[in-house]
Amino acid sequence: MLSDGLNQIIYGKSVFKPILFVVSAPSGAGKTSLCKEIAKRTDRIHYSVSYTTRAPRPGEVNGIDYYFVSREKFLEMKEQNLFIESAEVYGNLYGTSKKTILDSFQSGKDVLVDIDIQGAELIRKDDFGSVSIYILPPSRQILEERLTKRGQDSTETLSKRLDKVRQEVHAFSLYDYLIFNVDFRQATDDLHAIILSEHHRRSRMESFVTKDFLPKFEQESPLLTKSSDDQL
Q1: Which pTM was predicted?
Q2: I want to staple 165 with a disulfide (CB 3.0 to 4.6 A). Which of 26, 98, 120, 156 is the partner?
Protein backbone atom coordinates (compact mmCIF):
# COMPACT_ATOMS: atom_id res chain seq x y z
CA MET A 1 0.00 0.00 0.00
CA LEU A 2 1.46 3.33 -1.12
CA SER A 3 1.71 6.59 0.81
CA ASP A 4 0.12 9.46 -1.11
CA GLY A 5 0.77 12.24 1.40
CA LEU A 6 -2.90 12.84 2.15
CA ASN A 7 -2.46 12.15 5.87
CA GLN A 8 -0.41 15.29 6.49
CA ILE A 9 -0.80 16.90 9.91
CA ILE A 10 0.31 20.53 10.31
CA TYR A 11 0.06 22.38 13.61
CA GLY A 12 -1.91 19.43 14.95
CA LYS A 13 -4.61 19.46 12.28
CA SER A 14 -5.24 17.42 9.15
CA VAL A 15 -4.50 19.42 6.02
CA PHE A 16 -6.89 17.62 3.67
CA LYS A 17 -10.64 17.18 4.05
CA PRO A 18 -12.44 14.11 2.66
CA ILE A 19 -13.86 14.30 -0.86
CA LEU A 20 -16.54 12.25 -2.62
CA PHE A 21 -15.28 10.99 -5.99
CA VAL A 22 -17.92 9.75 -8.43
CA VAL A 23 -16.75 7.49 -11.25
CA SER A 24 -19.00 6.59 -14.20
CA ALA A 25 -18.48 4.90 -17.55
CA PRO A 26 -20.26 3.06 -20.33
CA SER A 27 -20.74 -0.63 -19.55
CA GLY A 28 -17.47 -2.52 -19.88
CA ALA A 29 -15.15 0.50 -19.75
CA GLY A 30 -13.63 -0.73 -16.46
CA LYS A 31 -14.82 1.71 -13.81
CA THR A 32 -15.34 -0.92 -11.09
CA SER A 33 -11.94 -2.54 -11.60
CA LEU A 34 -10.24 0.86 -11.51
CA CYS A 35 -12.00 1.88 -8.29
CA LYS A 36 -11.11 -1.39 -6.57
CA GLU A 37 -7.47 -1.03 -7.61
CA ILE A 38 -7.32 2.54 -6.24
CA ALA A 39 -8.78 1.36 -2.91
CA LYS A 40 -5.93 -1.17 -2.66
CA ARG A 41 -3.30 1.53 -3.07
CA THR A 42 -4.15 3.60 -0.01
CA ASP A 43 -6.14 3.28 3.20
CA ARG A 44 -7.11 6.97 2.82
CA ILE A 45 -9.79 6.07 0.27
CA HIS A 46 -12.94 4.05 0.99
CA TYR A 47 -14.55 2.27 -1.94
CA SER A 48 -18.29 2.40 -1.35
CA VAL A 49 -20.13 -0.82 -2.22
CA SER A 50 -23.56 -0.21 -3.72
CA TYR A 51 -26.83 -1.98 -2.96
CA THR A 52 -28.57 -3.81 -5.78
CA THR A 53 -31.58 -6.02 -6.43
CA ARG A 54 -29.94 -7.99 -9.23
CA ALA A 55 -28.73 -11.54 -8.69
CA PRO A 56 -25.01 -12.08 -7.94
CA ARG A 57 -22.87 -12.98 -10.93
CA PRO A 58 -20.46 -15.94 -10.67
CA GLY A 59 -17.66 -15.10 -8.26
CA GLU A 60 -19.35 -12.04 -6.75
CA VAL A 61 -19.44 -11.82 -2.95
CA ASN A 62 -22.09 -10.05 -0.89
CA GLY A 63 -20.59 -7.05 0.88
CA ILE A 64 -17.51 -7.05 -1.36
CA ASP A 65 -18.90 -6.51 -4.85
CA TYR A 66 -22.42 -5.39 -3.91
CA TYR A 67 -24.90 -5.67 -1.11
CA PHE A 68 -27.48 -7.96 -2.70
CA VAL A 69 -30.99 -7.31 -1.37
CA SER A 70 -34.54 -8.06 -2.41
CA ARG A 71 -36.56 -5.49 -4.31
CA GLU A 72 -38.83 -5.10 -1.28
CA LYS A 73 -35.88 -4.42 1.02
CA PHE A 74 -34.40 -1.93 -1.43
CA LEU A 75 -37.65 0.02 -1.76
CA GLU A 76 -37.98 0.03 2.03
CA MET A 77 -34.49 1.54 2.36
CA LYS A 78 -35.30 4.11 -0.32
CA GLU A 79 -38.48 5.07 1.53
CA GLN A 80 -36.37 5.63 4.65
CA ASN A 81 -34.11 8.01 2.65
CA LEU A 82 -31.04 5.81 3.23
CA PHE A 83 -29.63 6.32 -0.28
CA ILE A 84 -27.80 9.36 -1.56
CA GLU A 85 -28.86 8.19 -5.00
CA SER A 86 -30.73 5.29 -6.55
CA ALA A 87 -31.62 4.30 -10.07
CA GLU A 88 -33.04 1.46 -12.12
CA VAL A 89 -30.68 0.01 -14.72
CA TYR A 90 -31.67 -2.86 -17.04
CA GLY A 91 -34.58 -3.70 -14.74
CA ASN A 92 -32.49 -3.82 -11.55
CA LEU A 93 -32.29 -1.25 -8.77
CA TYR A 94 -28.99 0.22 -7.57
CA GLY A 95 -28.33 2.60 -4.69
CA THR A 96 -25.49 4.25 -2.77
CA SER A 97 -25.68 4.34 1.02
CA LYS A 98 -25.71 7.82 2.52
CA LYS A 99 -24.51 6.52 5.91
CA THR A 100 -21.45 4.87 4.38
CA ILE A 101 -20.33 8.17 2.92
CA LEU A 102 -20.93 10.15 6.10
CA ASP A 103 -19.18 7.53 8.27
CA SER A 104 -16.15 7.54 5.95
CA PHE A 105 -15.99 11.33 6.02
CA GLN A 106 -16.16 11.21 9.81
CA SER A 107 -13.12 8.92 9.86
CA GLY A 108 -11.23 11.27 7.53
CA LYS A 109 -11.42 9.10 4.41
CA ASP A 110 -12.26 9.98 0.83
CA VAL A 111 -15.12 8.01 -0.71
CA LEU A 112 -14.96 6.49 -4.18
CA VAL A 113 -18.22 5.37 -5.78
CA ASP A 114 -18.74 3.86 -9.23
CA ILE A 115 -22.26 4.49 -10.44
CA ASP A 116 -24.14 5.00 -13.68
CA ILE A 117 -24.91 8.34 -15.30
CA GLN A 118 -28.34 8.62 -13.64
CA GLY A 119 -26.89 8.17 -10.17
CA ALA A 120 -24.04 10.59 -10.84
CA GLU A 121 -26.54 13.26 -11.87
CA LEU A 122 -28.46 12.84 -8.61
CA ILE A 123 -25.28 13.11 -6.52
CA ARG A 124 -24.22 16.17 -8.51
CA LYS A 125 -27.39 17.92 -7.33
CA ASP A 126 -26.69 17.06 -3.67
CA ASP A 127 -24.57 19.12 -1.28
CA PHE A 128 -21.53 16.84 -1.11
CA GLY A 129 -19.23 18.88 -3.36
CA SER A 130 -18.39 15.76 -5.32
CA VAL A 131 -15.79 15.41 -8.06
CA SER A 132 -16.87 13.41 -11.12
CA ILE A 133 -14.70 11.31 -13.43
CA TYR A 134 -15.79 9.62 -16.65
CA ILE A 135 -13.99 6.56 -18.01
CA LEU A 136 -13.96 6.09 -21.77
CA PRO A 137 -12.95 2.97 -23.75
CA PRO A 138 -10.25 3.22 -26.44
CA SER A 139 -12.72 2.16 -29.15
CA ARG A 140 -16.18 0.73 -29.66
CA GLN A 141 -14.77 -2.55 -30.95
CA ILE A 142 -12.58 -3.06 -27.87
CA LEU A 143 -15.51 -2.23 -25.59
CA GLU A 144 -17.70 -4.84 -27.31
CA GLU A 145 -14.89 -7.40 -27.01
CA ARG A 146 -14.57 -6.70 -23.28
CA LEU A 147 -18.31 -7.09 -22.70
CA THR A 148 -18.49 -10.29 -24.72
CA LYS A 149 -15.46 -11.87 -23.03
CA ARG A 150 -16.83 -10.98 -19.63
CA GLY A 151 -19.58 -13.51 -20.21
CA GLN A 152 -21.75 -12.17 -17.39
CA ASP A 153 -24.85 -11.17 -19.35
CA SER A 154 -27.45 -12.94 -21.45
CA THR A 155 -27.49 -12.23 -25.19
CA GLU A 156 -30.51 -9.97 -24.70
CA THR A 157 -28.89 -7.95 -21.88
CA LEU A 158 -25.63 -7.70 -23.81
CA SER A 159 -27.48 -6.32 -26.82
CA LYS A 160 -29.20 -3.72 -24.62
CA ARG A 161 -25.88 -2.70 -23.11
CA LEU A 162 -24.26 -2.23 -26.51
CA ASP A 163 -27.20 -0.16 -27.75
CA LYS A 164 -27.05 2.05 -24.66
CA VAL A 165 -23.27 2.54 -24.98
CA ARG A 166 -23.84 4.59 -28.14
CA GLN A 167 -25.74 7.11 -26.01
CA GLU A 168 -23.62 6.86 -22.88
CA VAL A 169 -20.35 7.95 -24.51
CA HIS A 170 -21.87 11.39 -25.09
CA ALA A 171 -22.27 11.92 -21.32
CA PHE A 172 -18.59 12.85 -21.01
CA SER A 173 -19.45 16.57 -21.07
CA LEU A 174 -21.22 16.25 -17.69
CA TYR A 175 -18.03 15.24 -15.84
CA ASP A 176 -15.09 17.11 -14.36
CA TYR A 177 -12.37 14.74 -15.58
CA LEU A 178 -11.98 12.21 -18.40
CA ILE A 179 -9.80 9.09 -18.56
CA PHE A 180 -9.28 6.77 -21.53
CA ASN A 181 -8.86 3.22 -20.23
CA VAL A 182 -6.40 2.03 -22.88
CA ASP A 183 -3.92 0.51 -20.44
CA PHE A 184 -5.31 -0.52 -17.04
CA ARG A 185 -2.23 0.45 -15.03
CA GLN A 186 -1.95 3.83 -16.71
CA ALA A 187 -5.67 4.50 -16.21
CA THR A 188 -5.30 3.63 -12.52
CA ASP A 189 -2.37 6.04 -12.23
CA ASP A 190 -4.43 8.72 -13.96
CA LEU A 191 -7.34 8.23 -11.54
CA HIS A 192 -5.00 8.39 -8.54
CA ALA A 193 -3.41 11.56 -9.94
CA ILE A 194 -6.83 13.22 -10.23
CA ILE A 195 -7.61 12.38 -6.60
CA LEU A 196 -4.32 13.86 -5.43
CA SER A 197 -4.70 16.96 -7.61
CA GLU A 198 -8.18 17.70 -6.28
CA HIS A 199 -6.88 17.75 -2.72
CA HIS A 200 -4.22 20.28 -3.69
CA ARG A 201 -6.63 22.75 -5.27
CA ARG A 202 -6.19 26.17 -3.69
CA SER A 203 -9.95 26.48 -3.25
CA ARG A 204 -10.00 23.31 -1.12
CA MET A 205 -6.93 24.21 0.95
CA GLU A 206 -7.64 27.92 1.38
CA SER A 207 -9.78 27.48 4.51
CA PHE A 208 -7.09 25.46 6.26
CA VAL A 209 -4.33 27.90 5.27
CA THR A 210 -6.21 31.03 6.37
CA LYS A 211 -7.86 29.67 9.54
CA ASP A 212 -5.36 27.12 10.84
CA PHE A 213 -1.96 27.58 9.23
CA LEU A 214 -1.39 31.34 8.98
CA PRO A 215 -2.47 32.27 12.56
CA LYS A 216 -0.17 29.61 14.06
CA PHE A 217 2.62 30.48 11.66
CA GLU A 218 2.49 34.17 12.57
CA GLN A 219 2.33 33.47 16.32
CA GLU A 220 5.26 31.08 16.25
CA SER A 221 8.40 32.38 17.97
CA PRO A 222 11.35 32.85 15.59
CA LEU A 223 14.38 30.64 16.10
CA LEU A 224 16.69 33.61 15.64
CA THR A 225 16.36 36.33 18.32
CA LYS A 226 16.85 39.99 17.60
CA SER A 227 20.24 39.98 19.33
CA SER A 228 21.30 37.08 17.12
CA ASP A 229 20.25 39.05 14.08
CA ASP A 230 22.28 42.05 15.25
CA GLN A 231 25.36 39.88 15.66
CA LEU A 232 25.00 38.74 12.08
Answers
A1: 0.86
A2: 26
